[in-house]
TrEMBL record:
Keyword Signal: yes
Gene3D superfamilies associated with the record: Alpha-amylase inhibitor
This protein's UniProt keywords: Signal
Organism (species): Streptomyces lannensis
Protein name: Beta-Ig-H3/fasciclin
Signal sequence region: 1-31
Length: 103
């Protein structure tokens, strides 16, 4: 019986290590970054079926930003070179502009 206990202890330790390794090694879910800096100008305008967001990069370097929509789908991550601008349009009845974040 002593041998059986040792074998069970080894198997248990190996299983615990494997599970722990999986949990520790599992990639974290990708979350939106922090709020975009003030050098990214945002102008939000309501439209008849949603809203538009005008983004202007005045940061002096390339920035990656996305628009977060409360109760709706977010924009893709936009790579904006220094001095560039772009508009993004949300179409939907429930979504509201939430914020602009780095990504």
């Amino acid at each position: 019986m002593n041998l059986l206990r040792k074998q069970l202890a080894v198997v248990s330790a190996a299983a615990t290590a494997a599970i722990g390794g999986f949990i520790i090694g599992a990639p974290a879910a990708q979350a939106a970054g922090g709020t975009a800096p003030a050098c990214i100008t945002r102008v939000v305008n309501g439209t008849s079926d949603g809203f538009s967001v005008y983004l202007d990069n005045n940061c002096g370097k390339t920035m990656r930003v996305k628009v977060i929509v409360d109760s709706g789908g977010d924009s893709p991550c936009f790579t904006m070179s220094a001095g560039s601008n772009r508009s993004w349009y949300y179409t939907g009845i429930f979504g509201q502009y939430g914020r602009t974040v780095t990504c």
